[in-house]
Amino acid sequence: MGFVRVRFNNFKNIEPREMRWFPGLNLLTGGNGAGKTNILEGISIISGWGTLGRGEKNSSIPTWESGSSEAQLTGEIDSEEIIKVKVAKRFFIKVDDKTVTASDLRWKIPLLSFLSDDMSIIEGSSASRRRLVDMLLALIVPSYAFRLSEYRRGVRQKALFLKKGLPSMVVDRALLPLAAWLWRMREEGVGLLSQELEKLSELTPARIELSLKRGGAGLCADCEEDYSRSLFCYREREAALKFPIVGPHRDDVAITADGRQASSALSRGLRRRTAIALMLAASDGVKRKTGKSPVLLLDEVTAELDGEGRKILFDSLLSRDSQLFAATAEPFRLEIPCVVHKVEGGRIVESRQNK
Ligand SMILES: Nc1ncnc2c1ncn2[C@@H]1O[C@H](COP(=O)(O)OP(=O)(O)OP(=O)(O)O)[C@@H](O)[C@H]1O
């Protein structure tokens, strides 16, 4: 499963040309600002994930100089279906000329992305750990993305009530089944990640353990009861803070290495390897549950890894049957079987089969 061709039109600094992709590893090399991340972003968009979480608005995607407020992406996947995405204020998506939703697209061509910011998954904010579990679940549970966005809408509504000093019991009642369901799903997701991670011990020399920390809760195992009891405990605090502090929007994933908090127990290089291992574990989990290997996007893949770390990483990447897109700004000398695409000034100037 993967992309055969992608054409970018009016998309950031990318020249409007067709790019040809290959099965296995497609390695994008080139200096800073060459357009590697923009290419990965385009591939993420035509897989139904939108922009790569760089905090940009859709309106900043079209080329600055063109005067047009629309960008277009066209991709052919190996099932010979053609995906067309128009990015204006919203995304308009078609597969073989039929309109589909972003979540239909994610089921058609599952993809997981791993960005340089995600390297902070071990020591950074809880949002990046939730993002990983949410991406995994969105690819294996059909209604997950929809229910998560319903829940988020409810939380925003509750925040408005709290801000105005109004009682939020009605919203709490509506949120309870959604919150409990999300906790159950996330616990299963974290369990699946842990199982797959155990099989990737070459990337994680320490024994890594994961557990879900329910946001503002954890008073008892039963999800419904936990939500109700925790709300009761924190009602006054929520009213004082004017913000909902109980629920899945505040979840975190605790990560330990040999029983110690991973952020302090692991060196920088090992934190990076562990973060990448988590992403690969998510990919293996999707394959186990759906039978499909997700396309993988990895940005700044070699940063901070020493020679041995790089070798272990690429051995692991090349041992899977996914199509991979990895970007690196550093000169790349490893003799590995892949196609190296040299990116300069927003276009691929050379594609060469390595080895
Ligand atoms: N809407 C846009 N229109 C035109 N150019 C844009 C737009 N958005 C970003 N760019 C340009 O894209 C370039 C950044 O590209 P990108 O982030 O893909 O680089 P990169 O090859 O990944 O480099 P690095 O290794 O530094 O991350 C910048 O030069 C920026 O000016």
TrEMBL record:
Keyword terms: ATP-binding, Cytoplasm, DNA damage, DNA repair, DNA replication, DNA-binding, Nucleotide-binding, SOS response
Gene3D superfamilies xref list: P-loop containing nucleotide triphosphate hydrolases, RecF/RecN/SMC, N-terminal domain
Any one GO molecular function term: single-stranded DNA binding
Positions that bind ATP: G30, G31, N32, G33, A34, G35, K36, T37
Gene Ontology cellular-component annotations: cytoplasm
Pfam families with a match to the protein in the record: SMC_N
Domain (RecF/RecN/SMC N-terminal): residue spans on this chain: 5-328
One of the GO BP terms on file: SOS response
Compartment(s) where it occurs, according to its Swiss-Prot or TrEMBL record: Cytoplasm
Protein family according to the UniProt entry: Belongs to the RecF family.
HAMAP family, A to Z: RecF
Protein role: The RecF protein is involved in DNA metabolism; it is required for DNA replication and normal SOS inducibility. RecF binds preferentially to single-stranded, linear DNA. It also seems to bind ATP.
Protein name: DNA replication and repair protein RecF
